[in-house]
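Following the same procedure, sequence and fold were stored together, as reproduced here.

>
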Amino acid sequence: MVKIKTNKFSLVQMSKVDFSISYVDLENSFKINQNESHIHKECEIYLNLSGDVSFEVENRIYPVSRGSVIITRPYEYHHCIYHSENCHKHYWITFSAEQNEDFLELFFKREKGMDNLIHLSEDELTETCRLLDELLQNDIDFLKRRINFLKIIHILNGGKKVSYTDSLNGIPDDTIQVLQYMDEHLSEEITIKELTEACNISPSTLERRFKEALNSSPFAVLRKKRLIASMEYLRRGDKVFEAAYKSGFSDYSNYIHLFKNQFGMTPLQYKKKFEEN
């Protein structure tokens, strides 16, 4: 008896990928870990090995631990939040994605700030670290580099996706209530009284909660939320003054100043960079 099994298919064309990888083992006091501005045109993979940190992506906070992976796509704002002096060990990978979006659905077929957190099992983590360590070497050939990159993407596709709702388990309920209140009233004038009433706690407790959970003050978080919201308006095509007004900034010149300090470019420069890509 003869059995013949045939399958015909086309492989998605893979364009050139400019790939950068770093292994980082630093205390959080080092200047490299104090960078507030983190938006760029590449996709990024952050893989946590240790450290008392969480990750902010767009206007959402993700707690991370050993085996946690944070993925971001071009111009998706993200920032690592440090909660202690514990040593922070992680891999940091950025790569170009132009014309490779078809096989990078993990990065592109989702809303900004959603489904950014993936958790790897210890076996998946071990294998991913092995592949990354090989990519850190200078003597592996072109084919091996491409294979390792595709294997890493394959592992991430099979990893445990952690929804934003599930990821909130590490943040106190009253802090979540304040964050939600901010999101619902971004374009309005917000006072400290309104924030404390939103979760029924004292101003001092509110400050302490935000320092513990986000390493920041409530109004610094509110300001950043408004700046990030303005980025979305700019991406949608709004003019700079429209983005400022819709995201809650009444002082136009101050908005431009704050935006540049936070992201390293003016709102107009960001708008043009996004439109170019």
In short: The CA atoms of residues 43 and 97 lie 6 Å apart. DSSP finds eleven helices and nine strands in the chain. The two ends are 57 Å apart (CA to CA). Confidence is low (pLDDT under 50) at residues 31-35.
